[in-house]
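User: Predict the structure for this protein chain, please.
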Amino acid sequence: MQLTILGSCSGTEPMPERHHCSFTISHEDRLYWFDAGECCSYTAHLLGLDLPATEAVFISHTHMDHIGGLPNLLWTLRKLCSVSKTSAARLAGRTIDVVLPDLNVWNGMIAMLVGTEGGFKTTFELAPKRTEDGVIYNRNGVRVLATHNWHLGEPEDGESWKSYSFRIDAGDKSIAYSGDVRGVADFGHLIDGCDLILMETGHHKVEDVCRYLLHTDKGFGRLGFIHHGRAILDDPARELAKARERLGENVFIAHDGMTMDV
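Assistant: Here is the predicted structure, written as structure tokens:
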């Protein structure tokens, strides 16, 4: 599978050359989105990603830096249908899953989109689903496993968890994505045997993440930092050196527009 970083920043004030958190994976000519920070569809389109190949969108939690670009992504898919007969034909009759922890947020988003041009009538269907623990997608050679984390605390009785981490398996490759977490241990069971860990630094220090991974018995391939906090935003070279001193060369700091084969 191919990974593309569309946004690498945490929920700071606007930062040069970095947008809020979002990435895609491409597998067997289908496109899957994980989080949808500002400008994700704009960046994807300019990078040449095949937006009409969108199969599903997965949102870790509904903070603005993870979902702020979702309405525009859905609007962009509709717009592509209106400007391209090829895109319209490819999307016609399709169903795109949108998996997120809070359907109240979804309803508000759809109400906003309906207020735009054309009442947001589309030739494709959107299938909103609430995230739950367990396998939330398993089609076309791609499997997504969700596990709740403690970023937003434990829910009150009768409420559902509102923040999740994901493990993505496609073919014989796998990615563990933290989302925002209280600590690496929140999603530690997703890491074992994965080819790539994508770990947020908006709430954690690079050295603390490396220390945890050094002392875990979980085997993994590469470690990529995403959703950058102040330390990386201020001096990415310094923070990368810290990480590589502890874990070697198989560590990188994500930047907007980065692509790689996993």
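The chain has one domain: 2-261.
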